[in-house]
Each structure stands twice: as structure tokens, then as C-alpha cells.
Amino acid sequence: MSHLVFDIETVPDVDLGRRLYNLSGLSDEEVMKCMFTLRRQDTGGSEFLPHDQHRIVSISCVLRANDTLKVWSLGTLQSTEQELVERFFDGIERYSPCLISWNGSGFDLPVLHYRALKYGVRAPRYWEVGNEDQTFRYNNYLGRFHWRHIDVMDVLSGYQSRAKASLEAMATMIGLPGKLGFSGDKVADAYLAGELTRIRQYCETDVINTYLVYLRFELMRGNFTPERYAEEVERMKTLLRGGTASEPHFTEYLRAWEAQA
Questions:
Q1: CA count, 13 A, side-chain hemisphere, 115
Q2: Among 45, 83, 129, 190, which residue's beta carbon has the most beta carbons within 10 A?
Q3: At a CB cut-off of 8 Å and minimum separation 6, what does 243 contact?
Q4: Within 10 A of 105 (CB to CB), how many other CB atoms are there?
Q5: Strand order across the beta sheet in which 149-151 lies
């Protein structure tokens, strides 16, 4: 089975915010500020918006299948949100990969669900639970304790919210570079500044961190021997050194990674 590691980056859905809160006539930046303020008032401090108020601006992936290892972001800088969501679910429809994420059950997938609902994106394979394919009855993408989608954060925490850790902390703990000076709370400002390339690059390094933490998890649970684990790690380093992944942010990531060795 192929393995697809994924991560999304989002900004406030200002069109929805305008309609929900009667904010017509305000700029996107002003609507975002209003949405954050209203959320802070509702929660007593947190500006993190409800899942349904997020709009996806980047979906990045690591694909490991047969002899293939690939890191990329779906679509182009000109792709619409609908196109990104369609591409994600089309990949599941065609290949039925094992999905790997960090907090995918708690954030990425619910947001993808809402955005797919918005655009009427069909994804029967993703929603399959055994009605058409019996192999999905006890192992599907929706079951929290199934293995067709592995939310590494959820599994490592023992499915206990009080035990959850950040990807940044886990990456740093095992000697990975982590966020490289960028973080999710900077995405909205970067988007308003027209820095979509930077957002996609950040998303790609985040998904690399997720993949490398997942490799260590596979070693821990006995699916990899130490030799196989070392081979997979070196395969990623080789990819980052050149070929299709020879981009400045990958060079920066590899340099920071090797500096910690």
C-alpha cells in the first residue's frame, strides 16, 4: 500500500465571515480582524477559529510508494481552493493510500470535510465503510482506531487530549529542524501579503517533519528494522539534496537537520 502524508494550511474564510457577521463593505484584512476578535470574545482568549471558518490555501504531501518518494504541494499558485480539495480526494479515489497526518483527525480532515461539502466534491472511496468494498468495513479512513488513516499525534497520545504534543516539540525531540522560523499563526498575515509561495514552502517542510516522525514511529512499533529505518531516512536526505526537491527551503531544512546530527 502507498503512504500519503498530508498537511494543510488555512486562512479565515472572509466570505463566510462577511455573511455570518454582517461585515459587508470591509476589506479582507478588516474581516479577518473582526473574526479573530469575535472568536477571542467567545473563547476568553483564543483566536483559533472554528473548523468551518477556515479556507484552505495549501495542501502539501509526501508520497512513499514502491520506489517512489516525493514531496510537493497540490496544484499551483493559481489553483482555487476547490481545485486543491478535488485533487486531494481524487488521489484517494484513484490510489486508496494509507493517510498519515499530525492532528489530521482533529483539524485537517474536518476542515477538508467542510470544504468538500461547500464545493460538492465527490469522494466515495474516502467515505467508504464497507457497503461497496468489504475490506473497508473494519479498516477505513473514518474510524479513529483504524489504520487506513494514522494520525500520529492521536496515536502517540494514547487518544488522550491531555497527553497531546505539538509537531514542533516532537520534531525537535528527535533531532529534526522543526518550523524553521515560521508557524501556523503567521499564515494569515503571509497570505494577505501575497506570500503564498512561502506558505506552501512552510507546509512542505511541516509535512516532511510529519513523515520523519512517522518513520520513527514505524521503528518503535516494530514495522521497521533499524536498518530499514536508516535507509528510509537516508532516502529523504537524498531527495532533499537534489532532483525534483532541489528548492531553497529544502536545502535550508537539510542544512539545519544535518547541523543537529
A1: 30
A2: 190
A3: none
A4: 18
A5: 68-73, 54-65, 3-12, 98-101, 149-151
Helix or strand or coil: residue 218?
A: helix
Determine the pLDDT at residue 247.
83
Alpha helices in the chain (DSSP H): 14-21, 28-43, 81-95, 109-119, 124-127, 152-156, 167-173, 187-192, 196-220, 226-241, 248-259
Residue type, 247: E
207 residue type, one letter: V
Angle at which helices 196-220 and 248-259 cross, to 10°: 40
For 70, the enclosing helix (H) or strand (E) is strand 68-73
pLDDT in tens, 19-29: 999 999 999 99
Rounded CA gap, 6 and 101, in Å? 6
Report the pLDDT value the prediction gives residue 244, as an integer from 0 to 100. Answer: 54
The angle formed by the CA atoms of residues 181, 184 and 188, to the nearest 5 degrees, is 110
Which domains can be identified in the chain, with CATH numbers?
3-250 (3.30.420.10)
Enter the C-alpha cell of residue 205: 517542510
Amino acid code (one letter) for 77: L
Pairing of strands 3-12, 149-151: unpaired
User: 145 pLDDT exceeds 60?
Assistant: yes
Grid cell at residue 162: 491531555
pLDDT tens per residue, range 175-223:
999 888 788 889 999 999 999 999 999 999 999 999 999 999 999 999 9
